[in-house]
Design a protein that fits this description.
Blueprint (H helix, E strand, L loop, with lengths): L6 E6 L12 E4 L11 E3 H7 L1 H17 L1 E2 L2 E2 H4 L1 E3 L2 E2 L5 H4 L8 H17 L1 E7 L3 H14 L3 E3 L9 H8 L2 H15 L15 E7 L5 H5 L11 H8 L2 E7 L9 H11 L5 E5 L6 H15 L5 H7 L10 H13 L1 H19 L5 E5 L4 H12 L4 E5 L15 H5 L11 E4 L2 H9 L7 E3 L8 H10 L10 E4 L4 H17 L4 E4 L8 H6 L3 E2 L4 H5 L5 E4 L4 H7 L4 E4 L16 E4 L2 H11 L18 H7 L4
Parallel strand pairs: 1-2, 1-8, 2-3, 8-9, 10-11, 10-13, 11-12, 13-14, 14-15, 15-16, 17-18, 17-20, 18-19, 20-21, 21-22
Antiparallel strand pairs: 4-5, 6-7
Length: 621
């Protein structure tokens, strides 16, 4: 792809847009190309071909922002809350959570674009994409390189009035409103009382969802997060102290229902259950106000931020992608919410009797980073982070630049003493991201223990051939993604003589008339029952049920669009293929004709006897 001749290029979202012959190079922003040439380049394809370097470059960029010197102090130091914690780790940028407005997929694409422009010596760029923030970055990039740039992209869509009013309100005003609202909501929370230590005690932190409601009514806590581990812990420890996070978006349990549930669970003699929240005392209130004022006047101007958010040895300013989140993290409602979490969790963890061990669900959420800091401040024992989902290569919140794990003081990433690995791939990813060998313990994947019985059921049934089978299509968490999937696959399946059974995501159903429009049959029963009889599964790369199908030995075709990063944990796994449009799906269907389903596959560590957990807990009891 290297070139010594100067080239003009047009950047477009997809091939559906007309490209002028005046341009020597066409670069697709959101579309996968079949072949990469000097005339036609796909950024999603380029990213897949150079994923290791680009992910490493992104993590380096995040590290560099934290270490950037502003008036003689690093950003991490400027955002210091006290002697052992910097608010830097709670900014939305440092948390690295991918969502529609996070700017992370766009950053990866822009880093790829910079490499292409410099390698090919592109001398002029015309922009014809929809993403306004990315367009601003590209125009600044071209200005820094001194090359002409023309933006012919569509104008921005008018913003609804109610969102405009919020956007143009002073950040301190939205922060004040958030503080008042959170203080008012906490008024009904009973103050946590310090409990005396009761021998060997273990604390467990999770979300108040995904539990067996019928068992809970009888005082027994059964959760999909923990499988049968609580029974083992009751053998090993004198006391199990459960702390449940209640507010988790649309799945939140009301405080009234949560209190009723905990009252029933607390009839169990060995276990105690509490909400992981506390009343906003006057002391906490003033600490939040004090720290917010400190953040507000941290002294990082927009001019300085533009420099901060330009990667080293780069001409690519990325500030437009992260400006809104950064300001909200330091001056808006996010600053208040995260500071409240900081001081309430510190108070709760400080009031706990000394815990020999702690285990929490590892997702690198804000409360987890605060927990690791508070846990060590309070002098508790070993803290274990336990991932409950399959490891994903592009889920960058699970990774940091390796220097962050070995730096000292405020620059050290808040991490648990041990991290549980539930699969070989998970272990490899942890080690490659700088986690030391002695920090990793191998355990069973508790959230996937149910696969053991499904695998037995599947392996005992006959193997099916994929010659014109009934295809199982699984919906996505996003309704828009589901519609895009069905728009592509339903006509292709019909042309190839395949009938289809569709199961919607439980939180994102389609109405019956819409499903009928696609000419497919809806399945409303248990997913496990459907998968054990499935011969071929088609779904999106985001859908977690794809992992279940893979473990059951079912051939998989996964849809990955070019707009987002490929978040599938099954990349490079045998029996899994990815398609991007109807043409690539057609090719894959032809290749899979006659292919048989295989026996179950080992992806996770699974064992109903929890051998690995037993071995890991021996060092504590």
């Amino acid at each position: 792809m290297n070139s010594t001749n100067q080239l003009s290029a047009v950047l477009m979202d997809t091939p559906l847009q007309p490209a002028s012959e005046n341009y020597k190079t066409t670069i697709y922003w959101n579309d996968f190309g079949t072949n990469q040439t000097n005339d036609l380049i796909s950024l999603p394809t380029y990213i897949e071909q150079n994923e290791e370097a680009l992910r490493r470059r992104f993590l380096e960029f995040v590290y560099e922002v934290g270490q950037c010197q502003i008036a003689g102090k690093t950003v991490i130091k400027r955002l210091q809350v006290d002697e052992d914690f910097s608010y830097w780790w709670l900014t939305l940028f440092a948390l690295r959570r991918t969502h529609p407005d996070s700017g992370i997929p766009e950053t990866i694409k822009l880093l790829a674009l910079e490499e292409i422009v410099k390698k090919m010596n592109i001398s002029e760029i015309t922009i014809n994409i929809q993403d306004l923030r990315a367009r601003r970055c590209i125009k600044d990039f071209c200005f820094n390189l001194g090359i002409p740039c023309t933006d012919i992209g569509p104008p921005s869509q008018p913003t609804k009035l109610r969102f405009s009013l919020r956007r143009f309100s002073p950040k301190w005003l939205t922060a004040l409103a958030t503080l008042c609202r959170q203080t008012w909501r906490s008024r009904s929370i009973s103050q946590n009382q310090k409990v005396e230590s009761n021998g060997r005690s273990i604390a467990l932190f999770d979300y108040l969802t995904g539990f067996d409601a019928e068992a809970a009514g009888a005082g027994i806590y059964r959760s999909r997060f923990w499988s049968n581990l609580p029974e083992l812990l009751e053998e090993k420890f004198d006391k199990l102290s459960w702390y449940h996070t209640r507010e988790i978006g649309d799945s939140s349990t009301s405080r009234k229902n949560a209190d009723k549930l905990l009252n029933k669970l607390n009839t169990h003699p060995v276990s105690s259950h509490k909400l992981f929240e506390t009343k906003m005392s006057l002391q906490i209130f003033w600490k939040v106000v004090r720290d917010y004022c400190q953040l507000y006047k941290s002294g990082i101007s927009e001019t300085e931020a533009k420099i901060m958010f330009t990667p080293s040895n780069s001409d690519l300013p990325l500030w437009p992608l992260f400006r809104t989140e950064w300001i909200d993290s330091l001056r808006g409602s996010t600053a208040i919410r995260h500071l409240i979490l900081l001081h309430t969790i510190r108070e709760m963890v400080g009031q706990m009797p000394r815990q020999l061990v702690g285990i929490y669900l590892l997702e690198n959420q804000p409360w987890e980073l605060i927990l690791t800091n508070a846990w060590k401040r309070a002098g508790h024992g070993t803290l274990i982070g336990m991932p409950q989902a399959a490891p994903k290569y592009w889920e960058v919140r699970q990774f940091v630049d390796s220097r962050s794990r070995t730096d000292l003081g405020l620059s050290k990433f808040p991490q648990p003493d041990l991290i549980a690995s539930t699969s070989l791939r998970g272990r490899q990813m942890l080690l490659s991201s700088g986690v030391s060998q002695d920090q990793v313990i191998d355990v069973e994947a508790l959230s996937y223990q149910y696969l053991i019985n499904l695998q037995k059921s599947k392996d005992s049934s006959e193997k099916f051939s994929t010659v014109n089978p009934t295809v199982t299509v699984l919906g996505d968490f996003s309704v828009d993604e589901t519609r895009q999937l069905l728009d592509i696959c339903s006509p292709v399946l019909a042309q190839n003589g395949h009938s289809a059974i569709f199961k919607a995501h439980p939180t994102s159903p389609l109405n019956k008339s819409e499903i009928a429009k696609y000419g497919i049959t809806e399945f409303v029963g248990d997913l496990g029952a459907l998968l054990t009889s499935s011969r071929l599964v088609i779904t999106t790369s985001f859908t977690s049920a794809a992992v279940d199908a893979y473990c059951l030995g079912i051939p998989l075709l996964l849809f990955s669009n070019g707009k987002d990063l490929n978040m599938s944990p099954l990349r490079d796994e045998p029996g899994v293929q990815f398609f991007h449009d109807s043409t690539s799906l057609q090719v894959l269907l032809e290749q899979m004709t006659g292919l048989e389903t295989s026996s179950s596959r080992d992806f996770f560590n699974l064992d109903l006897n929890l051998y690995r957990w037993r071995q890991s807990l021996r060092q504590f009891v």
